[in-house]
Amino acid sequence: MIRLCEKKDEENMYRIINDAAKAYQGVIPEDRYHEPYMSRAELDHEMKDGVVFWGFEDKGELCGVMGIQDKGEVALIRHAYVRTAQRQGGIGTRLLTHIIERTDKPILIGTWEAADWAISFYTKNGFNLVQPDEKRNLLNQYWNIPERQIETSVVLSNKGC
Q1: What is the tens place of the pLDDT at every residue in 10-32?
Q2: Are strands 128-129 and 75-82 parallel, antiparallel or unpaired?
Q3: What's the CA gap between 81 and 107, in Å, rounded?
Q4: DSSP 3-state of 48
Q5: How far is CA 40 from each of CA 23, 45, 90, 110, 147, rounded to the nearest angstrom?
Q6: Coil, strand or helix: which one is 31?
Q7: What CATH number should be reported for the domain holding residue 113?
Q8: What is the pLDDT of residues 78-109, one digit of tens each?
Q9: How many domains, the chain?
Q10: Domain interval for residue 27
Q11: Measured between alpha carbons, how far is 76 from 138 in angstroms, rounded to an integer?
């Protein structure tokens, strides 16, 4: 079942994000990976900053989360994670479809250039990589990330930007 995440879900969300983010270890630049990948304070900040999280619940257990953040003319997919033990079961696709159905805006997704599995997932679900020069413009316009992350990231879009 897909449902809106609430404040009471923060601990489970924190655990899901940090479990799933272990996939980045040794893949993304070493200077960008740390544990926990997202602190509780960072998660709280993201929620206060307008990231609305949806969760996939199975047998009463939250096992995947995906956020969306309205940025005016576009929406951003933020923090899409499924517990390691429950990957490859369609949870991410179901969450992404659920979110796509809730906005008419173009959706942008930023992810690590080295995260081939993430890029493949999004392209299989109708997203396309934007050109490198446009990527930089979009990351600067809609995200608040350091230059090093801009250098090592990609942006995908479902409607072209």
Answers
A1: 999 999 999 999 999 999 999 99
A2: unpaired
A3: 17
A4: helix
A5: 19, 9, 27, 21, 23
A6: helix
A7: 3.40.630.30
A8: 999 999 988 888 999 999 999 999 999 999 99
A9: 1
A10: 2-157
A11: 11
Query: Which ranges of 8-157 does DSSP label H, i.e. alpha helix?
Result: 10-20, 40-48, 91-100, 116-124, 132-142, 147-151
Q: At how many degrees (to 10) do helices 91-100 and 116-124 cross?
A: 50
pTM (two decimals) = 0.94
Residues of the chain by 3-state class (helix, strand, coil), percent to 5: 40, 25, 30
Query: What CA–CA distance (Å, rounded) separates 51 from 67?
Result: 6
- Amino acid identity for residue 45 in this structure: H
The dihedral built from the CA positions of residue 107, 112, 113 and 114, taken in this order, carries a sign that is negative
Residue 160 pLDDT exceeds 90? no
Dist CA 16 CA 116 (whole Å): 20
